[in-house]
Write a structure and sequence with these properties.
The complex is a heterodimer of chains A (about 280) and B (about 290).
Chain A lengths: L1 H13 L3 H7 L1 H24 L8 H11 L3 H34 L1 H14 L8 H8 L3 H25 L3 H9 L4 H38 L5 H10 L3 H29 L12
Chain B lengths: L3 E10 L7 E11 L4 E5 L6 H9 L6 E6 L2 E2 L7 E4 L11 H5 L1 H5 L4 H15 L14 H13 L5 E5 L7 H18 L2 E6 L2 H7 L2 E5 L6 E6 L11 H19 L18 H23 L1
Parallel strand pairs in B: 3-8, 3-9, 6-7, 7-8
Antiparallel strand pairs in B: 1-2, 1-4, 4-5, 9-10
Helix pairs in contact in B: 4-5, 5-6, 7-8, 8-9
Classes of the chains: A mainly alpha (about 280), B alpha/beta (about 290).
């Protein structure tokens, strides 16, 4: 089995044909094909419908999209939103990770906290908007709260799952080598749960990014979500489309960033060390 | 005085909605310093349970286990434990794994490096100290697991089916590596196994346990020179004797210490014996196949 694997990998190192390079980027190529088909479909559909309020022309939206990256107002609002997301994520991280580790490690803590947590997380995030405005007024407060609120649960749940997934023999091995409880937390629980924690971070960031846009529709007069509402009110549908594409793209880039961090921090899981993709 | 004393140890598992299961009842034996002892028996005979109690991961319901004069109550670095799946910490390099017990003890970097050097020497792992376990072959993982357990210079090494997860072709090779490694470290070993060949190859003494309450079927001293020759008449004689004893153990009967066990009638318990026969014959045919190559 193992011998087979190594011969295959030596072959690829020895002879890197154009076919192999294509194999490496096969996934990227296919996804670009799909995107291109969708854009072409959009182009023809817009020309046929001839209603820029419903479906703006592709060229116009593309122009809006590219100029947006150089528009000070849009970029400063984007920066504001990103700052809120990272602040909210930080709060969620500081609460969620210790709570998740505790609930994963201690059966008592799990039994004590999980019913209340599982109830609270069923409340739709938008249902927190009125209360968060009462608590924090308008502006940064409610948005950061809503981000933290939607990010904390995936963090807690994934951290618990990560701790539960640790082989019990790791604890026994550590204890037989004289490890104390702090040793076990630092050397077994945290690194053992790390892959799952990082998955939780990715999910949390995604949820945070989604909920911030929603929160900014209502609870604030600045930010990326607010720009979208503005574009809608001014009937600038092309700009609205451009902003939506931007929000998707920014979320995608953040996710990729986390994926790279995840691979770097858990390179011990991969046979050949860090593999960037 | 013996290094390890097992004194009247019993262990009972309580089961939900079922009568309690007596795994071990009043088990007693001693292990001398420097001995390599195998606990051999069919699965479910309580051998792993006994080893777990020696490791301090669980406590006997009656009796006690004494190591070098101290009662075993919890896990500790005076016993090196090698798990069946090795339980190497995948997020630590070979070096970090091996030195873990010393790092916990806050030994100076200098002493740690000195010990690391010694351990890499006996395990032939030089050049791999900065690799992660996932990058190692099964044999190398085994050696890391053994020297990690040896790092703190334990009184005794406890091996829980150290080759249980290894395929048959690989197993004999790893047995040789293990024998050399343990011999180099000059330590006392208690090993759990269900493989007769393995127990004869590695041990000074084999304790055969029965499936019924972990009673000692027989305590066999292996009087063969090392390194052992699997093809020698003496080796084969021990293997066939022990195979027959394990067969007995399957039926849960303790036998007399004389090897007069061939005349046992198999009536109601034939199915167990047949199952074991089928199992052993399959194993021998595999080994013939390997020899033929």
């Amino acid at each position: 089995m193992e011998r087979n694997g190594s011969t295959i990998s030596t072959n690829t190192i020895v002879k890197l044909t154009p076919g192999d390079i294509f194999d490496k980027y096969r996934g990227t190529f296919y996804s670009l094909v799909v995107v291109t088909i969708l854009l072409i479909a959009w182009y023809f559909a817009a020309n046929r419908i001839q209603n820029t309020l419903l479906l703006p022309y592709f060229q116009e939206t593309a122009r809006e999209f590219f100029t947006a990256w150089f528009d000070y107002r849009i970029m400063s609002n984007l920066a504001l939103t990103l700052r809120r997301v990272f602040t909210g994520f930080l709060y969620a991280f500081l609460i969620g990770i210790p709570l998740g580790l505790l609930m994963g490690y201690s059966q008592t803590a799990l039994q004590a906290f999980s019913p209340i947590m599982n109830s609270v997380r069923q409340v739709p995030i938008m249902a927190w908007v009125p209360l968060s405005i009462i608590w924090f007024g308008l502006g940064d407060g409610p948005t950061v709260f809503l981000i933290a609120m939607s990010a904390v649960f995936p963090l807690v749940i994934n951290t618990i799952a990560g701790v539960h997934g640790i082989d019990p023999n790791y604890y026994n091995a550590a204890r037989s080598m004289g490890a104390s409880l702090p040793n076990i937390i630092r050397d077994i629980v945290v690194p053992g749960a790390l892959p799952s924690i990082l998955t939780g971070c990715r999910l949390a960031m995604g949820f945070g990014w989604m909920s911030v846009i929603c929160a900014e529709f209502i609870a604030t007069s600045a930010g990326f979500g607010f720009l979208m509402v503005e574009a809608q009110i001014r009937l600038e549908t092309a700009q609205l489309y451009a902003l939506m594409v931007m929000s998707g793209l920014v979320g995608f880039v953040i996710d990729k960033g986390f994926l790279i961090i995840e691979k770097k921090l858990t390179s011990w899981r991969f046979k050949d060390g860090f593999v960037g993709s | 005085m013996a290094l390890l004393e097992v004194k009247g140890v019993s262990k009972i598992f309580t089961r939900r909605k079922k009568s309690p299961h007596i795994v071990l009842e009043n088990m007693s034996f001693t292990v001398e310093r420097g001995q390599y002892v195998s606990l051999l028996g069919p699965s479910g005979c309580g051998k792993t349970t006994l080893l777990t109690m020696m490791g301090g991961f669980s406590t006997p319901d009656a009796g006690e286990i004494i190591l070098a004069g101290n009662k075993v109550e919890k896990p500790g670095p005076d016993r090196g434990f090698v798990f069946q799946n090795y339980a190497l910490f995948p997020w630590m390099t070979v070096k970090e794994n091996i030195l873990y017990s010393l790092q916990v003890k806050k030994l100076s970097k200098q002493d740690q490096n000195k010990r690391l050097h010694e351990l890499l020497e006996i395990s032939h792992l030089f050049g791999s100290e900065n690799k992660y376990p996932v990058q190692l072959s099964g044999g190398m993982q085994q050696r890391v697991a053994v020297v990690r357990a040896l790092a703190s210079r334990p009184e005794i090494l406890l091996l829980d089916e150290p080759l249980g997860a290894v395929d048959f072709q690989m197993r004999e090779l790893l047995q040789e590596e293990l024998a050399a490694l343990v011999e180099g470290a000059k330590t006392t070993v208690v090993m759990v196994t269900h493989d007769v060949n393995e127990s004869v190859y590695l041990s000074d003494r084999v304790i055969v346990m029965s499936a019924d309450r972990g009673q000692i079927v027989k305590d066999v001293y292996i009087d063969l020179d090392r390194p052992r020759d699997r093809q020698s008449e003496g080796f084969k004689a021990y293997v066939s004797e022990l195979t027959e004893l394990v067969r007995q153990a399957f039926r849960g009967k303790t036998v007399e210490l004389q090897p007069g066990f061939a005349d046992v009638n198999c009536n109601s318990q034939t199915s167990f014996a047949d199952a074991y026969n089928r199992m052993t014959s399959r194993y021998t045919s595999v080994s013939h196949g390997r020899v033929a190559k």
